[in-house]
Amino acid sequence: MKKIYSIKGMHCDSCKKLIESELKDKVKNISVNVQTGKANIDFDENKISEGEIKNMILELGYQVF
After folding, report:
1. 13-41 pLDDT tens trace
2. CA-to-CA distance for 2 and 18, rounded, in angstroms?
3. Where are the domains of the chain?
4. How open is the CA angle 2-54-19, to the nearest 5 degrees?
């Protein structure tokens, strides 16, 4: 399943790297764009749920929609 999430609270490349590194082993593909505030995530919903993805991003200190 491919989803685009809006993430608020990112200001630099370190934010992007933090989110990508936190999720990279749990999803098929992740690409975060700090300028647009979007994360493109391709994941297997049988292995990780949308709620789990959102919670992981929230725990890093960002808002996700």
Report:
1. 999 999 999 999 999 999 999 999 999 99
2. 20
3. 39-65
4. 85
